[in-house]
Amino acid sequence: MKIFKLNVESKSEMIEYLRKCNSNQLLLGENSEVVGGLYIFQVKSNEVVRLTVGVITEGHGLEPECKYVGDKLLIGFNKEVHIIDTSTNENKKICADSLFFEFASETNSNRIIAVFELEVMCFSLEGNTFWRCFTDVINEYFIENNNISIVTDSGKEKISLLTGEKK
């Protein structure tokens, strides 16, 4: 599977693009209070587009991130992560209390680590949250030895990737 990302200029252009696609389509972020960025992600297999997803962000200076794991498409943006089954189009949404930054890593094929502005979250591809760890504004992080170390304005913290407990 390959993921392709396109930027579009307007919501009407995005809707028209989705309408013309021969693949399954989804539109995420329709309830964004402010339209900041407009993105289209396409999942291709053997040069055939299997899924096209339009994403409307609120434009906090952060671009959405898209990752393909197993048969799921993960898209993080604004204060949410969507887990989309590419074969059924089923979409599960995980909400956070702060802005999505990026997917940090997978501890295994069913444990996804996502870093937000004020928290680190671990969840399954089925949308079940294993743990959430709230913190001050995260400036940087790194992963080693089944831990994620985060650096905030208040200092450093180490969190177990397996349990979410601070060490």
Radius of gyration: 16 Å
Shape: globular
Main beta sheet, described? 4 strands, mixed
Determine the number of helices (DSSP H or I, runs of at least 4 residues).
1
Strand content: over 45%
Quote the average pLDDT: 91
> What is the strand arrangement across the widest sheet?
1-3-4-2
Helix-strand makeup class: mainly beta
Q: How many distinct domains?
A: 2
> Percent range for helical residues?
under 10%
Strand tally, please? 15
Order of helices and strands: EHEEEEEEEEEEEEEE
Contiguous uncertain segments of 5+ residues: none
Ends distance: 38 Å
Describe the structure.
By secondary structure, the chain is mainly β. The protein has two domains: 1-95, no CATH class; 96-167, Thrombin, subunit H. Helix content is 6%, strand content 58%. It has one helix and 15 strands, in the order βαββββββββββββββ. It has one helix at 11-20, and strands at 2-7, 24-28, 37-45, 48-57, 65-69, 72-77, 80-85, 91-95, 100-108, 111-116, 119-123, 129-134, 138-144, 147-152, 155-160. A hairpin with a 2-residue loop joins β5 and β6 (72-77). The chain starts with a strand and ends in a 7-residue tail after the last strand. The mean pLDDT is 91.
